[in-house]
Every structure is written in structure tokens, then in C-alpha cells.
Amino acid sequence: MMISSYRTWCFDLDGTLLDQQARYTQIYYDLVARLGGNPVSDYWSKRKAGLTELDVFSRSGLPLSNLAAYDRMREEELENVRYLKVDTPFPATKELLEFLNDLNMTIWVVSHRSSLERLSDQLVSLKLDKLITGCICTKQDFDSAENTTLALSPEGAKAASSAKAEALQKLGDTSQIVMVGDSPSDIVAAHLARVGSIAIPTGCHSLEMLEKVSPDLVCNNLQDLLFMISSTKV
Fold first, then answer.
1. What is the rounded CA–CA span in Å between residue 138 and residue 179?
2. Do 44 and 228 meet the contact criterion of CB atoms below 8 Å apart?
3. Pick the residue with more confidence: 35 or 154?
4. pLDDT one-digit tens code per residue, 67-103
């Protein structure tokens, strides 16, 4: 993989540029309690150990009949401004984006969120907006009457990958595009779009889960990625 060949850098937001641990954890606790379940005490460590959100849900004392309600409420709360306020950039996020800007790279945020307005407002509040060329929100309306797919289901993950792939293909010469993400759907999207892929296990997906979808490159964190880019003659 020749990092120097990429001129358009696309980043997932949650878990890649922003640390969403506090938001995801609090939403899980709040929703399980709201539905009358018993939240596990170590939600994030279970997710990092490789358990999916569905796996953790099944250990929360709630019947399967509550899954659809949990899925729907979770999708709504993930973009609730009250929860978004607890997100923080990873330590090297700003430094990496500034470095890519200095190299005259094009930088896009490609996120499977639904509200471009809330995403943009969040970037402004975190003082990252001026470092990014543009943002794309790819989430389908899972609450529509025509679409009953659960976001947490394998079908939901496939929909996320397909939507991101379509977005990536519209950003120009695919040979010069790379997708950086923390989830399997980010890497699958890159494969579908025939662009480069870099996996970073800083979100809620384990390294093992990411390696199963064969990213072109795996970096431990954004700091490692910055070091690799800066060490490469561009």
C-alpha cells in the first residue's frame, strides 16, 4: 500500500476521529434501564473484546421482543445533541488533519449518520470544521414504513457499507482515495468502492473483527497513522 498515492482522505467520524466511548456507553445504560433491563457493568470492555451490540443486548436481561424498540431508540439517541456533547477528538485528530491540510490533501468525513446539520455543528464546536473539505451523511431512514431493517442487524451493516461505498465513488478518481475507519462496514465500503482502506481499532470494534474484513493497512491509532504518513515521501 502506497500511502503517498492518496490525495483524497476520507474519515469515518465516530470511533475514528472522535472518541465516542462515553456517548455509546451512556446511551446503552440509559436505554436498557428505560426498557426495564439490567445493564452490564462493563459495556465498553465487552465491546472492545469483540462482542457486538446485539451480544451485549442479549446479556442485559431484556427479551428479544424488545430488540426492535432498543434498535430504534438507539438510532435516535446516537445523534441526540445531549449525547453528542460528550464526544471528544482523539489526541492526534487535529494534528493529523492539520498535517494533511499542509500537504494540500482533500479531506472528507464520510459518516453513517443522518443529520448533516448536527454533524457540522459538532465539528464547529470541536474546532475541526475548517480542517475538513466536506462531510457526507449516508444513513438510510430505518424508521420508514418501507424499510424495517434493524440498524444493528447484519442487513443494517450491509446497508451502511453500500451507502458509504456509493458516497466514496462520487469523490473522484478512486485510485487516489483512501477510507480510514474503525468499523468493518468502513472497510467493506472501501472494498466495494475500490478505494484504499485503513482500519484503526479505536472505536468499539476489536482488532480481530477488523482484520476479518482484510483492510489494506491497520494502524493502532491516529498517532501511528500520522507518523507513517509523515515518514513517507509525498
1. 14
2. no
3. 35
4. 999 999 999 999 999 999 999 999 999 999 999 999 9
Architecture, CATH, for domain 3-19+88-230: 3-Layer(aba) Sandwich (3.40)
Give pTM, 2 decimals.
0.93
Q: Where are the domains of the chain?
A: 3-19+88-230, 21-84
Give 192-201's long-range contacts (Cβ < 8 A, gap of 24+).
192/161, 192/162, 192/165, 193/164, 193/165, 193/166, 193/168, 193/169, 194/169, 195/10, 195/168, 196/1, 196/6, 198/225, 200/16, 200/225
DSSP labels, the chain:
--GGG--EEEE-SBTTTEE-HHHHHHHHHHHHHHTT----TTHHHHHHTT--HHHHHHTTT--GGGHHHHHHHHHHHTT-HHHHTT-EE-TTHHHHHHHHHHTT-EEEEEES-S-HHHHHHHHHHTT-GGG-SEEEE----TTSTT----TTSHHHHHHHHHHHHHHHHTTS-GGGEEEEESSHHHHHHHHHHT-EEEE-TTSSS-HHHHHTT--SEE-SSHHHHHHHHHTS--
Structure-block grid coordinates of residue 173: 478518481
Q: In angstroms, what is the C-alpha Rg of the chain?
A: 17
Q: Between helices 93-102 and 222-230, what is the axis angle to 10°?
A: 20
